[in-house]
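Good day; I would like, with your permission, to put a structural problem before you. The record follows directly beneath this note:
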Amino acid sequence: MRLLFVTLCLLLLNIDVVLCQEINTDIVGKKMSFFEKLEKKYNGKVYETDGDVIIPGGMATPIMYKRVQKGMPDLIVNYVFTEKDSLMHTVEYEWDVSNYFDKVDDTSSMFRNAFVKKYSELLTLLSSRYGTSKPKGELADFFKIDAPKKLSKSDRWITNENTEVKLYAFGSQDYKSLFKIHIYVSPIRF
């Protein structure tokens, strides 16, 4: 029994270490060069989208990276930073089934389980950093057969550095199944 407990603790620590590497929510005062080094460390590759990019005033052209994931859509990280001094303005992390570069049956229970597990891991990580979130929606709805056609779940934190961290999951069964997990990190503007 004790061996099982120790093994479980080590597994949980391993999950947290991997997620800590994946998600950096401490952006205040950090420059883009800091995040470029992180992306190199995590084998992130510069990712270019076919869509139009809207650049807020005073911001440089955002830089996106793709990190290959196993059993989930690849992680796309979007960095928005100031043009003048390269200070980070916003970081967005996104796991979107449309970014799944391998074939996947996103209607399968195995995919939904992986999707919900990923959200739960991220929620645990962010809650360990920032305490209890302000939640909306239910993650359990993603498992229900008779669930509404559109599902959402979100959790929100305000850090001591006045940064908003929002974790969001979306699912839709309209037209084609769509599942997305998104983390949005941005300083609060007063």
Remarks:
- The helical segments are 2-22, 32-41, 109-130.
- The chain has three helices and eight strands.
- The chain has one domain: 2-187.
